[in-house]
Each structure stands twice: as structure tokens, then as C-alpha cells.
């Protein structure tokens, strides 16, 4: 009992020291928490695949009722904004090249005539393909508007397809991206803090002083890991609150499960960070290794593009990427209201990574080849 | 003589969020002549480094005027920087560059022409005895060699003024001798003007002018002779009766500030300074029959007198309660047998054996790079031994359970505490790591802060070098360890603080604490029960200070410094001869 | 003047040596781009393939089979046949299906009356994929129905309708690699700056090397220039790797002039390296510098520069923030240069902006090396 109390007291002393070192001066406090806030807001608005007020230009050679109506419908959706009305096809290139218009809608001179003759009337849409995601979405939107217009002309199809979207009824890409930020944004800094923690002590010579105290490797591990985990969870909380109350994305699942997932995820991330730290001799090395790792972790996480679109071999590689499963857990708990039973498989890789990296780091504290 | 530095009414205040404003330089005036060697001395935190940095144009004075080489430094710092050379306390060598590359860099920056450069480099490398190591990365050099390389980099050309900030901190006596030889030669040959700050009084003694600083003000100035005169007639040397260690007598004397200003063991005797008003009867009482006679006064004596006259004179030297442990019983606590440590081809420690008994003070002496720190790191379990046996309190700390480490204290050579935490936070953390808590921890911290004269709110990393060292000591002693490993604990701290430190160590040893210590102040070896001299990883001599002095023969008769130099040089000669054979 | 040149040469030599000595530095500087190139090229894709659609057949007639047969024929969809909504829902919840196509029991009967109704339920979490699946599923089913209609010999009466002729300029096939790879150049250049230079000055402060360097004739601007030079070389090597990979591995067109691409990239590289130095000089502390570098360069360049997220979709405030980032200007320029060609107004505007950034940042970095210790 005495031994347990001593163990806890010693570990608490270390945790307190680590927290002090992290949070002591206002500038480092700002550096830990302001970015989460700022990034959540900036990326919340900035990171979207949804078109809003996308600029388009119209070149209407036919100047008839139909072309006017279609143009009006395109403008009326709120998705597009008319940026220019062109006079000649020579102007098209300028509009697209400069990025002033994402698309140009062209009605040929015989457009009105063909329609009234009951024939098919082609209209042309020229899209700026430099961002294929945006151009694809815009094309689909225009197609949908035109289809609706055709329906109003009386065209019928024997089959109708009614669409329902679960979990994200309006297909807002923010709903998809923001919950992923809860995991991914906080991971970046958490990983960096963990990676620098031991490297900094080694570079500044304080690690030896730490090693001659009676602290055991497991105590040092806990003392180094907990503050980093705490910072990670705090950052996640900031982002979580912004998403919930500022962006008002409804939370479908259990907050407890969400935090359990975040805790597991952050622990795995910190395990990786501490392992990097334990092998690095200088902060420069720790930082470089971390950066080197962050990129693949981000790209192979499904944050920006779905994991399922990747080649098979890279998909396999994602199984050791905590960020993939962290994002998976958060998205599914937040949006789908997944239960522990639903997402249990996503916990396994996280636990695996933590179980491998944390003991490795603890072992490396003392046994790094010098 | 035209003054090369002229300062009037200088004032510099630093603003600190935690401890408020600190006035480092407080209305200081001084005048330094050309072509002279000038020393700045003073206790820790006197403002020596701040003043040096102002000379170098790195800090702007808040008040007062300062001209260097006739230039207003505050207004045109670059003009001064183009003409002077400056060696900061911690010379910023590029550790990943080789010796030659570091030299080249500074020669290029100072625009030394190629033809002059060849001569100069040759001379510098010869004087620093580094010609063999030109290809070695600076980071792989020992502490003393780094200092010498720093000096060489500073001296790639003849500057109009050379500023040296504590150039010999942590440098062994041989390197220190070399370093000063270089400086003296340049002053003689090239008429170099040099300002050097130092805490070694024997170094100040060699300068033409000495300025004694205290709390940002000038306390006294003059030639060493005029300053020495203050101590005239007060300096004595006492020989303890046979069988009594000098340090016991020294302890008794230094604990009597009413009659004694200062006392240090030296060469088996005790040198002391009596108060001018000391009662002869009281003196006789303290000496307890030890014979005493007058001796020549030294600059250090005057320095001690000057400082004791200041406010710190009232400070009691010893306050630490003796730990409640059985006194020394002569049983070995540290056993080292055939210890070897190799780094690749390089043998850092070669088959070393020694034992240290409980309650003993064991001094490990040796030039920089002799393997002392490596030995320490192995004993503390920080580094595995290549071969051999080592036990600390019956265990090998590398494999022992963690709690075994609670019995040792370790003060490393480099400041190894958390620079961005306050003094109190550092003490609290290390206390906690050793399992101290609650009232006991608070009491110990209060004691430590008092004894080491620390400001608990100050940020550790910004303390003056001497105070950093004190904090490291305070931290290492907080948990009252049974065995203390002290790696150059007194480097860079002033003589006053060194006295207090040794008084504490001898008290601890009396209480049964085993102390194993390295130092470059050879006179401090006199406090030890036994000492060992190590060089190039080999043990050259081991025994009581008296035995070691005897071993050095004629040279050792004078003092430990000369004994040390003689033994190390003899060892090197022998090794060279073996290598040649 | 000669002295300045000699000093600069000495300082550059010093920085280059330090860079070459630290293997981890060099390794990351040269290996990172390769890793990024491969990852970007192969891992990032918006092009949905084999989306899993759970088909709930509550009506098993031949007509139904024909109607949904189109799904199996699509490259983009892979149907999973199930018999109850409960089963399908479980698949969605377990993440094993992305959508459900429900064929109601009365489908065949209603189809005869021309009122067939299918239900498509999508997991909207990944809205992009969901919308793509919707498009593919609808397309596949209508093609199948058209086919049936054709075989039954009852061509749909030609009626008045509008058809859309779609032309996507610059990227006919809407290949997402084409738009992601030019962004890769931007990210690599950004990262090189963030990684390699952001610790340089901070490290010298922490190790105390600056104090010695300050009291020499070396001028702050010379120190800054010397710190930029060796990393510029690394950056050029990286740039070459990126351009070669873009052209020959990923077959991205390079419609603009090669020399404009190179010159603009070099200018941006300079901006990025200088930004790293400024971070380093302002923080004077490696711990803070590395956090800042991560936050100030990499994340914004990825999220706010128009790399994947089109800036035309974001609120004005965010557009303003984006335009403060040098990466945004370079991102727009490089995408145009790769896919559209030399569009001079943009080339001039972006390069002038970048040049201004470079000048300001270098000046700021110089200011952080002002020879003062307080």
C-alpha cells in the first residue's frame, strides 16, 4: 500500500512538472489552445466541398424564354451566383482562365426554336476542371436543375428514385470533415508535444538528472504521456464544442463513447510520439521524424479523401495509422450514433498501436544506444 | 595612457515577470587602460557578464555613458564589434563542425588574409596543443579543449580589445595554465588589451589591474599589490597537530566568524585570515594548540575580506542539520573493480579500480576528458560499463530496483535542471520524484533556499551561472542521500560560496554521508579524505592528499595544484614513451 | 564590399556543412518529397470505385432483376444482395455498405402503371462519396430501364427536353490526380521551409552560438542569406523531383512554360524558407518554433490554400485569411500553369505578391537577428 502511494506521489510530481513546463508561460499556453480554436473555425468554414455562391457566366445566344428560365433556376438554387453575362464566345476563355467563373452556360441560337419544336435542345456547359472535385459537383448540380426543368416540361420516366440520406440529410461536407477534425487537429500537436518531450530533456541534459531519481521507466512513461494526452483531449474538447455549438452539427451518439474513443486514440498517438522522442537525440531530429510521420498519417487517414478509394496495399498500411481509426470512431459516434458494438473493431488497431509503442518508449528511455 | 574602455554612471535593469526588476549594473563607472590585462572579479551575480555584454554592444545601458575604443557602443555597436573579439562564458562553438572548420569560420568572418592565417592557425594550434585534433568535431572535445578552441576562435586575429568572460570555468589546471600562457603571450607580443572576468583569484593576481564588483557596483580597484595590502598582517597559517585532518581545524575556524574571516585547508595546513579586532585569547582557543605563523597575503585574502565586509558577512555558514546516521565505519560503500568503458575504438575509462568507504570524501581529479564524468555516469547507472564490476551500496544501479537510486544524489557537470521552471518548482519536482511530500518537502525546500541563498521565484534558466550551480547542489541534497556524486559542483561559483559549500560537505561526511566529487580547484582536494588522479581513462595516483603530494615529490611539496600537474605530466610522458616503444 | 562577400561565403559554407553533417536533416529534406509524391499520387483520390450498395429485394420478379441488373454492370458500384431492410441497415451501421437500394414489394405492379418507385438510402457522412454513388446508381438504373424499353420496342416518344453538353476544360476526364499533383509542389515547398529552416535560428539561440557570432563583423542580413542558401539547393532538388514525377509518373499536363513554373516555384521556395526563419527567430526556442511551423505553414497550406477545397466556396472572411497565405497565391498559379497554361495576369500578380512576401519575410528574419541580447 505504502509502495503504491509512493508510486502515485512520485508520478504526480512528474506530471505536475510536465504540465508546468507546458503551461507555465502565457505564450506557450496560447500556443497550445488558441490554434485549436482558430483552426476549428477557419477550417470549419474553409474546408468544404459544397458549392456556395459558385460564380458562373452566361452566354445566351438564343435570348428566349427557356434560356432565361433555366438561367433563373440556376441562380435561384443559392448554389450559383451569376458573375458575368457574356456577349461573345471570345470572352469565355477569359472568364474561365482568370477563375472569375467556375462554369459558363451557353445557350445556342437555335435553343428556343428546337424546344418549341418539341425536339431535344442541347445547351453547353463549360467547366473549369482545375479542381475536379468542384467541377464535378457543379456539373451534377446543373444536371439536376436541367432534369427538374425537363420534368416541368412534362417528360416522364417509368421509375422514380426517391433518395434519403441518413446521418447527413443535406449532404453537407462540413458534417463529414468537422468531426474528423476533433481527432486529426488535436493529434498533430499532441504528437509533436510527445515527440519533443524526451528529446528536449536529452538535448538540455536534464534527462540524466531524471534517470538518477528513483522514478521507474513506467513512471516516466506515465508522467510524460498523461500531460500530452490531457492536452490532446483538451484540444479535442475545444474543437468538439465549436462543432456542436457554433456549427451546430447535431451529435447523434454518446458523449462518453466519443471520449472513450478519443482517449484510446490520443494514447496511441502519444505512444508513437514518445517512441520518436526516445530514439531522438536532439529536438531537431524529433521534429523532423514527427513531420515525416504526420504527412503519411494525415494522407492515409481518410480525412480528405476516403480510405476506400486507395489502392489495396495502402489500405492495408492504414491499419497501423491511429488517425484513420480515430477519425472513424469520431465520425461514426458523432454522426451515425454508433454504439460500442458497432465500432469495436476500430478500437483494436488503436489498442494495438498503444500496446506496442508505449512499452517500446519506456524501454528506450534507459536503453537507447549512446 | 589612453583609456580603451570608459564607463560612467552605467545602469542596467532587467525586467522579469516573476521576480520584478533586477538591477544588474547600478551606477558603475570604470576606466580600462590600453595594452593591459584587466581583471573583473566579484561574487556570483555581481554583474560581470552583464558588463561584458555591454562592452561588446550586446546590451544597451539604461543610463550612463560607455565608450569602447573611443566609440559610443550604444549608438554604433557594429563599429565596435568589427574591432573587438569576445569570448562569452559559454563559447558558442558549432559542435557539428570540426576544429579547423570552426577556426576557418571565425577567420573568414574577421577577414583574416590567407597568408596571415597560416601563421596564426599554426601558432594557435600549437599553443592550444590541438594540432592533432583539427579534424575532430568540436562537440567531441572535452570541456577544457572546447574552452581553448573558443579562445583560439576568438584570437584568429589580433583584436583591438579582447573580452574574456570567465574563460577558465570548468577547465582543468593544465588547460588553464595553457590558456593563460596564450593570453599573456599575446599581451606581451602584440600589446593586446584584455578584459577578463574570473572567479579564480590566482588568475586576477596575474593581471595589471583588478576591479572588484559587487551587486552591480565597483567595490574596489587597483593593482593586485594595492588590493593585497588590505590583508596585510591578517593572514596566518596553522599546522594542525599530527593525526588531525586539516579540514577539522578548518571547519572549527570558519565556524567562528567573530574571530576568523576565512579559512581553507592547503597542503596539510590551514590558511586563515583573522579579524583585525580578533581577541588573541579567542584565537588561541580556536587553534587548540595548533601552531600558527604569519604568511604572505594573497589577492584572495583581500577579496574575502572585501566580501565579508559587505552584507553577506552576517550570513551563517552552516545551518544544515546533520543527518541522523551512524558515522563512518570504514566499510566500503562504493566498489569499482577493473571498470572499462569503450566508445567504439576510444577507451574512455581503462581498467579502473577503487573503493570508497562510508562517510568518506573521495575526490576524483583529472584533466578534462580524463574519464571522470564517464566513471560517474557508470556509477549512477546512466551508462552501461563495457566490462568490470561496480557496486554502489552493494548494487549495480543500472540493474537495481528504482528505489535503490533514492539513496544517491547526483549533481551533473552541466546545469541539468529545468530552465523554464522557477527555483521552487525545480525543488518541488525533484523532491516529489524522490518521494518527499507535504510538510517535510516544504521544510526542506525552505532550508535549501535559505542555505543556498536562492530566490525561490526566480526562473532557473536565467540565474547567474554561480546561482545555477547552487540550485543544482540544493536539488541534489534535498532528499538527504547517503551517497553523493558531485561532478564539478563548484565550477563557476565564487570563493565565498565555495567555502560554504565545502563546509556543508564536510559536515555531511561527518554524519556518515559518502561523497564522491570531481573538481578543477586543486586546493579543494585538500578537503577530501582520499583523492584519485585520472588521465586518459587511467588511474595515475590514489591516496590521501598528503600521500598524493608526496608521490609528486618535490613539486608536490608546494600545493596540490603543482602536485597534480606534475603527476599528470609524468603520466603522459610515460604513455608517450610506451607508445613510441 | 569584398569583406561582405567573404563573410557571406564563410557563413554559407558553415550552414552547408552543418546541414550535411546532420544526416536526419538531409534524409528528411530529400526523402520526404519522394514519400509525398508517392502518397499523393496513389492515396489521394476522389474517384469512387466499387461503392458497396446493399440491394434489398422485397420483390423478386424478373422485371425487378432487370431493373437493378445495371448496378452489377457498373464499374463504380458493387451490389451486395440482401433480403431485408434489417440486414441492410446492419451493414450500414457496421460500415460494410455505403448505400441501400430498396426494391419495394409492390415494385413490379407499380412499374406496369408507370409508377415504379425505388428507394435509395445513402450514408451521408461522407457527402462526396454519397453524392457520387447517387449519381452512379441513378445512371445505372436509368440505363437499364432504357435498355428494357428499347428491347420492348417502345421507344420513348421524342419530347421537348433540354440536354446538357458538358465540357470540362483543362481536365477533360475530371481526373482528381491532375488537380492534386500540382498542389503537391506547393505542399512540398511549404514543408521544406517549415521543416528545415524553422529551427535554425532557435537552435543557435538555445546553444549559445549566436552570442559569439554577434561580436564579429558578420551582419544580420548576411546570416539570414547564408541560412537560406543551402536549403534553397535542397529545395531545388525537391522541386525537380516533383516536376519529373508530375510529368512522367502521373502524366499531369504541363501546359504553361517550364521556366515560368520553375521560376515561380523558386520564388515560393524562398518565401517558404524565409517564413521558417522568421518563426525560428521570433520564438528563439525550438519547442515553440516546431509547433509554430506545424501550425503556420503546413496545416493552412493543406486546408486553406485551395489545395483541395475550392476557395470560391468559402465565406469572404475565410477568403481574406486565405489570401494572406503565400501558399494560396502560389497554389492558384501553379494549378493554372500546369493545367491551363501561361495566363499572364495571374503570373504577374502572383509572382509580385510572392516577391513582396519574400522581401518582407527576409527583412523580418534579419530583424530577429539584431545583435541584442535583451
TrEMBL record, chain A:
Pfam families cross-referenced by the UniProt entry: ABC2_membrane_3
Transmembrane intervals: 177-199, 220-247, 253-274, 286-304, 343-365
Domain of life according to the entry: Bacteria
UniProt GO molecular function: ABC-type transporter activity
PANTHER family xref list: MEMBRANE COMPONENT OF ABC TRANSPORTER YHHJ-RELATED, MULTIDRUG ABC TRANSPORTER PERMEASE YBHR-RELATED
Family designation: Belongs to the ABC-2 integral membrane protein family.
Protein name according to UniProt: Transport permease protein
Domain ABC transmembrane type-2, first and last residues per copy: 143-368
Native source organism of the sequence: Paracoccus salipaludis
UniProtKB/TrEMBL annotation, chain B:
InterPro entries named among the record's database cross-references: AAA+_ATPase (IPR003593), ABC_transporter-like_ATP-bd (IPR003439), ABC_transporter-like_CS (IPR017871), P-loop_NTPase (IPR027417)
Short name of any one Pfam family annotated for the protein: ABC_tran
Residue ranges annotated for the ABC transporter domain, each copy included: 5-240, 334-561
Protein keywords: ATP-binding, Nucleotide-binding
Keyword ATP-binding applies: yes
GO MF, any single term: ATP hydrolysis activity
PROSITE patterns named among the record's database cross-references: ABC_TRANSPORTER_1, ABC_TRANSPORTER_2
Record protein name field: ABC transporter ATP-binding protein
Species: Paracoccus salipaludis
Automatic annotation (TrEMBL), chain C:
Any Pfam family matching the protein: ABC2_membrane_3
Tagged with keyword Transport: yes
InterPro entries named in the record: ABC-2_transporter_component, ABC2_TM, ABC2_TM_bact-type, ABC_2_transport
Domain ABC transmembrane type-2: 146-372
Subcellular location: Cell inner membrane; Cell membrane
Molecular function GO labels: ABC-type transporter activity
Record membrane topology: Multi-pass membrane protein
Location (main, coarse): membrane
Transmembrane found in the keyword field: yes
PROSITE patterns xref list: ABC_TM2
Keyword vocabulary terms for this entry: Cell membrane, Membrane, Transmembrane, Transmembrane helix, Transport
Superkingdom of origin organism: Bacteria
Positions of transmembrane segments: 178-202, 228-250, 256-280, 292-311, 350-369
Cellular component, GO, one term: ATP-binding cassette (ABC) transporter complex
Similarity comment: family membership: Belongs to the ABC-2 integral membrane protein family.
UniProt name for this protein: Transport permease protein
Amino acid at each position: 500500500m505504502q509502495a503504491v502511494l509512493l508510486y502515485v506521489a512520485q508520478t504526480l510530481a512528474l506530471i505536475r512538472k510536465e504540465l508546468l513546463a507546458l503551461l507555465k508561460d502565457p505564450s506557450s499556453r496560447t500556443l497550445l489552445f488558441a490554434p485549436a480554436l482558430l483552426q476549428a473555425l477557419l477550417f470549419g468554414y474553409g474546408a468544404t466541398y459544397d458549392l456556395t455562391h459558385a460564380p458562373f457566366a452566361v452566354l445566351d445566344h438564343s435570348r428566349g424564354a427557356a434560356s432565361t428560365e433555366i438561367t433563373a433556376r440556376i441562380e435561384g438554387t443559392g448554389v450559383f451566383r451569376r458573375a458575368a453575362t457574356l456577349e461573345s464566345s471570345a470572352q469565355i476563355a477569359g472568364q474561365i482562365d482568370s477563375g472569375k467563373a467556375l462554369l459558363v452556360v451557353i445557350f445556342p441560337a437555335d435553343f428556343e426554336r428546337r424546344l418549341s419544336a418539341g425536339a431535344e435542345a442541347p445547351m453547353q456547359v463549360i467547366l473549369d476542371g482545375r479542381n475536379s472535385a468542384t467541377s464535378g459537383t457543379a456539373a451534377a448540380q446543373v444536371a439536376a436543375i436541367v432534369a427538374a426543368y425537363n420534368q416541368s416540361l412534362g417528360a416522364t420516366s417509368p421509375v422514380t428514385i426517391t433518395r434519403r440520406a441518413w446521418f447527413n440529410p443535406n449532404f453537407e461536407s462540413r458534417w463529414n470533415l468537422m468531426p474528423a477534425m476533433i481527432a486529426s487537429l488535436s493529434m498533430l500537436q499532441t504528437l509533436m508535444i510527445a515527440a519533443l518531450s524526451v528529446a528536449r530533456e536529452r538535448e538540455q541534459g536534464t534527462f540524466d538528472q531524471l534517470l538518477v531519481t528513483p522514478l521507474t521507466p513506467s513512471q516516466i512513461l506515465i508522467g510524460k504521456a498523461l500531460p500530452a494526452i490531457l492536452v490532446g483531449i483538451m484540444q479535442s474538447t475545444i474543437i468538439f464544442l465549436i462543432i456542436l455549438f457554433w456549427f451546430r452539427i447535431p451529435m447523434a451518439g454518446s458523449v462518453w463513447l466519443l471520449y472513450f474513443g478519443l482517449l484510446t486514440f490520443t494514447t496511441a498517438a502519444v505512444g508513437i510520439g514518445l517512441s520518436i522522442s526516445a530514439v531522438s537525440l536532439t529536438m531537431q531530429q524529433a521534429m523532423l521524424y514527427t513531420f515525416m510521420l504526420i504527412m503519411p498519417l494525415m494522407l492515409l487517414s481518410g480525412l480528405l479523401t476516403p480510405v476506400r478509394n486507395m489502392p489495396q496495399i495502402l489500405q492495408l498500411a492504414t491499419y497501423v495509422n491511429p488517425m484513420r481509426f480515430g477519425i472513424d470512431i469520431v465520425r461514426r459516434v458523432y454522426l451515425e450514433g454508433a454504439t460500442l458494438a458497432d465500432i469495436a473493431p476500430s478500437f483494436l488497431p488503436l489498442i494495438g498501436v498503444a500496446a506496442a509503442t508505449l512499452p517500446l518508449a519506456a524501454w528506450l528511455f534507459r536503453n537507447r544506444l549512446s | 595612457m589612453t583609456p580603451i574602455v570608459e564607463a560612467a554612471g552605467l545602469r542596467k535593469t532587467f525586467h522579469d515577470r516573476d521576480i520584478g526588476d533586477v538591477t544588474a549594473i547600478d551606477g558603475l563607472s570604470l576606466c580600462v587602460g590600453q595594452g593591459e590585462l584587466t581583471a573583473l572579479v566579484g561574487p556570483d551575480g555581481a554583474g560581470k557578464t552583464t558588463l561584458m555584454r555591454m562592452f561588446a554592444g550586446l546590451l544597451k545601458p539604461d543610463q550612463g555613458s560607455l565608450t569602447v575604443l573611443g566609440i559610443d557602443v550604444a549608438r554604433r555597436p557594429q563599429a565596435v564589434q568589427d574591432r573587438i573579439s569576445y569570448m562569452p562564458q559559454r563559447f558558442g562553438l558549432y559542435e557539428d563542425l570540426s576544429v579547423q572548420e570552426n577556426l576557418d569560420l571565425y577567420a573568414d568572418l574577421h577577414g583574416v588574409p590567407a597568408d596571415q592565417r597560416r601563421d596564426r592557425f599554426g601558432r594557435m594550434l600549437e599553443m592550444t596543443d590541438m594540432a592533432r585534433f583539427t579534424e575532430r568535431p568540436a562537440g567531441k572535445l572535452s570541456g577544457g579543449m572546447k574552452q581553448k578552441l573558443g579562445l583560439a576562435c576568438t584570437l584568429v586575429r589580433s583584436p583591438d580589445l579582447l573580452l574574456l568572460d570567465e574563460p577558465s570555468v570548468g577547465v582543468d589546471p593544465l588547460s588553464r595554465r595553457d590558456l593563460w600562457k596564450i593570453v599573456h603571450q599575446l599581451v606581451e607580443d602584440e600589446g593586446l588589451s584584455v578584459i577578463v572576468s574570473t572567479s579564480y583569484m590566482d588568475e586576477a593576481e596575474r593581471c595589471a589591474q583588478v576591479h572588484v564588483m559587487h551587486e552591480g557596483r565597483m567595490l574596489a580597484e587597483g593593482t593586485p599589490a594595492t588590493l593585497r595590502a588590505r590583508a596585510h598582517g591578517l593572514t596566518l597559517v596553522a599546522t594542525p597537530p599530527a593525526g588531525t585532518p586539516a579540514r577539522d581545524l578548518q571547519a572549527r575556524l570558519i565556524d567562528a566568524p567573530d574571530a576568523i574571516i576565512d579559512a581553507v585547508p592547503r597542503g596539510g595546513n590551514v590558511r586563515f585570515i583573522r579579524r583585525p579586532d580578533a581577541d588573541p585569547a579567542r584565537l588561541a582557543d580556536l587553534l587548540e594548540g595548533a601552531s600558527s605563523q604569519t604568511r604572505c597575503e594573497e589577492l584572495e585574502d583581500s577579496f574575502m575580506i572585501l566580501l565579508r565586509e559587505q552584507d553577506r558577512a552576517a550570513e551563517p555558514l552552516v545551518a544544515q542539520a546533520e543527518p541522523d546516521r551512524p558515522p563512518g565505519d570504514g566499510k566500503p560503500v562504493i566498489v569499482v573493480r577493473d571498470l572499462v568503458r569503450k566508445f567504439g575504438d576510444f577507451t574512455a575509462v581503462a581498467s579502473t579500480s577503487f573503493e570508497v568507504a562510508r562517510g568518506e570524501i573521495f575526490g576524483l581529479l583529472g584533466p578534462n576528458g580524463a574519464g571522470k564524468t564517464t566513471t560517474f555516469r557508470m556509477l549512477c547507472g546512466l551508462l552501461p560499463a563495457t566490462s568490470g564490476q561496480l557496486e554502489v551500496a552493494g548494487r549495480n544501479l543500472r540493474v537495481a530496483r528504482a528505489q535503490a537510486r533514492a539513496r544517491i544524489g547526483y549533481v551533473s557537470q552541466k546545469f541539468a535542471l529545468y530552465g523554464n521552471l522557477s527555483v521552487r518548482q525545480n525543488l518541488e519536482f525533484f523532491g516529489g520524484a524522490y518521494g518527499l511530500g507535504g510538510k517535510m518537502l516544504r521544510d526542506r525546500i525552505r532550508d535549501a533556499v535559505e542555505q543556498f541563498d536562492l530566490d525561490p521565484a526566480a526562473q532557473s534558466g536565467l540565474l547567474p551561472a554561480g546561482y545555477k550551480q547552487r540550485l543544482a547542489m540544493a536539488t541534489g541534497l534535498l532528499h538527504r542521500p547517503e551517497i553523493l556524486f558531485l561532478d564539478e559542483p563548484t565550477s563557476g561559483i565564487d570563493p565565498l560560496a565555495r567555502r560554504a559549500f565545502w563546509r556543508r560537505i564536510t559536515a555531511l561526511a561527518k554524519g556518515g554521508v559518502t561523497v564522491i566529487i570531481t573538481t578543477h580547484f586543486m586546493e579543494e582536494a585538500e578537503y577530501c579524505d582520499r583523492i584519485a588522479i585520472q588521465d586518459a581513462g587511467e588511474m595515475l595516483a590514489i591516496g590521501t592528499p598528503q600521500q598524493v603530494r608526496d608521490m609528486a615529490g618535490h613539486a608536490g611539496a608546494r600545493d596540490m595544484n603543482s602536485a597534480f600537474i606534475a603527476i599528470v605530466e609524468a603520466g603522459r610522458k610515460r604513455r608517450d614513451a610506451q607508445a613510441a616503444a | 564590399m569584398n569583406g561582405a562577400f567573404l563573410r557571406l561565403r564563410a557563413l554559407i559554407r558553415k550552414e552547408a556543412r552543418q546541414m550535411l553533417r546532420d544526416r536526419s536533416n538531409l534524409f528528411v529534406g530529400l526523402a520526404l518529397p519522394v514519400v509525398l509524391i508517392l502518397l499523393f499520387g496513389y492515396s489521394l483520390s476522389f474517384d469512387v470505385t466499387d461503392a458497396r450498395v446493399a440491394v434489398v429485394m422485397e420483390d423478386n420478379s424478373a422485371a425487378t432483376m432487370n431493373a437493378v441488373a445495371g448496378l452489377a454492370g457498373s464499374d463504380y458500384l458493387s451490389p451486395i444482395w440482401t433480403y431485408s431492410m434489417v440486414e441492410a441497415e446492419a451493414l450500414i451501421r457496421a460500415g460494410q455498405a455505403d448505400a441501400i437500394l430498396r426494391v419495394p414489394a409492390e415494385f413490379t405492379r407499380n412499374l406496369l402503371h408507370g409508377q415504379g418507385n425505388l428507394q435509395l438510402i445513402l450514408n451521408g457522412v461522407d457527402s462526396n462519396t454519397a453524392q457520387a454513388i447517387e449519381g452512379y446508381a441513378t445512371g445505372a438504373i436509368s440505363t437499364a430501364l432504357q435498355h428494357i424499353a428499347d428491347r420492348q420496342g417502345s421507344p420513348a416518344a421524342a419530347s421537348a427536353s433540354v440536354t446538357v453538353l458538358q465540357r470540362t476544360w483543362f481536365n477533360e476526364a475530371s481526373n482528381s490526380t491532375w488537380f492534386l499533383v500540382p498542389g503537391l509542389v506547393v505542399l512540398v515547398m511549404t514543408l521544406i521551409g517549415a521543416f528545415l529552416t524553422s529551427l535554425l535560428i532557435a537552435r543557435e539561440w538555445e546553444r549559445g552560438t549566436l552570442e559569439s557570432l554577434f561580436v564579429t563583423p558578420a551582419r544580420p542580413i548576411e546570416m539570414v542569406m547564408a541560412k537560406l542558401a543551402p536549403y534553397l539547393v535542397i529545395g531545388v532538388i525537391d522541386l525537380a523531383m516533383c516536376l519529373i514525377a508530375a510529368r512522367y509518373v502521373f502524366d499531369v499536363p504541363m501546359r504553361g512554360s517550364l521556366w515560368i513554373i520553375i521560376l515561380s516555384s523558386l520564388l515560393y521556395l524562398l518565401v517558404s524558407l524565409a517564413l521558417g526563419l522568421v518563426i525560428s527567430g521570433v520564438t528563439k526556442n525550438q519547442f515553440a518554433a516546431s509547433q509554430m511551423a506545424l501550425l503556420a505553414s503546413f496545416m493552412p497550406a493543406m486546408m486553406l490554400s485551395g489545395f483541395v477545397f475550392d476557395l470560391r466556396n468559402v465565406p469572404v472572411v475565410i477568403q481574406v485569411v486565405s489570401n494572406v497565405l503565400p501558399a494560396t497565391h502560389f497554389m492558384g498559379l501553379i494549378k493554372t500553369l500546369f493545367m491551363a497554361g501561361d495566363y499572364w495576369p495571374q503570373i504577374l500578380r502572383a509572382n509580385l505578391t510572392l516577391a513582396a512576401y519574400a522581401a518582407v519575410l527576409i527583412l523580418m528574419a534579419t530583424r530577429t537577428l539584431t545583435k541584442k541580447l535583451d
